[in-house]
Prior knowledge:
CATH superfamily of the domain at 7-114 and 192-262: HUPs
Protein name: Nicotinamide/nicotinic acid mononucleotide adenylyltransferase 2
Number of helices: 11
GO molecular function, one term: ATP binding
Shape: globular
CATH architecture of the domain at 7-114 and 192-262: 3-Layer(aba) Sandwich
Radius of gyration: 19 Å
Membrane topology: Lipid-anchor
Cofactor: Mg(2+)
Order of helices and strands: EHEHEHHEHHEHHEHHH
Largest sheet: 6 strands, parallel
Strand content: 5-15%
CATH topology of the domain at 7-114 and 192-262: Rossmann fold
Subcellular location: Cell projection, Axon; Cytoplasmic vesicle membrane; Golgi apparatus membrane
Amino acid sequence: MTDNTKTHVILLSCGSFNPITKGHIHMFEKAREYLHKTGKFIVIGGIISPVHDSYGKPGLVPSRHRLTMCQLAVQSSDWIRVDPWECYQDTWQTTCSVLEHHRDLMKRVTGCILSNVNTPSTTPVIGQPQNETQTAIYQNHNTMNNKPTAIKLWGKMSESMGKICCVRPHIDRFTFVDENANLGTAMRYEEIELRILLLCGSDLLESFCIPGLWKDSDMEVIVGDFGIVVVPRDGVDTERIMNHSSVLRKNKDNITVVKDDANHPMSIVSSTKSRLALQHGDGHVVDYLNQTVIDYILQSQLYINASG
């Protein structure tokens, strides 16, 4: 497949990130690497969306700290961004709502309809405006021999989204601008297929099987309409989990399980282990957290108490 015919993907990860760990970033990297190896996908961006303060999880530090730690963790990345929208809402948002927000945001930014697993290939995608009168944000003033790459596409999209949702804001300040702000014109990109996929660990996959925890309608949208990419942790049998849920079984083709040949110890994703290491003065905390995140935690006196 050529790059033009591959599905372009934005990975979205929701969670507490309390604090964000090296493992969280590793999940993005492993997922991108695996999706590229399939030959079907090009991952052009990643979004980290920390949960709202009202989520109510014990020991959850205020979002201003979690947003800053996330920003510190990805400051050297050229493709992973931190988005504060979820934190800035009046109350906690469901994962389904966060996915739908970013889908709708992409529509406004690109002026196009995003495709998903249940959308025919003829559905307009990036490069095809939804109507004739709308000015496409990606307006190509170059020749066809100088076509933009997927990375340039994400860079331009990030620049544009930054004007309305602070995808990559200044580390000390997360502010909103009017979502109807004039985004201006930029390069028009050739037609590609773009999808937003939920990136998660096998623990979230397991939670789908807990009766009453998720609305069936939300699960159908998350797995059926968007699709998920699962990075297994600690040798969990993802096949068994999927067979335990009727929704997961029905939408198994929309679930991509990342196979890690290196058998990386994904347990370092655990924020709980990181907090315990901090509370006990365990030097192994450097295995879990980036040094910049550790420095911020110590400076802000976070996770000192044993609660949570």
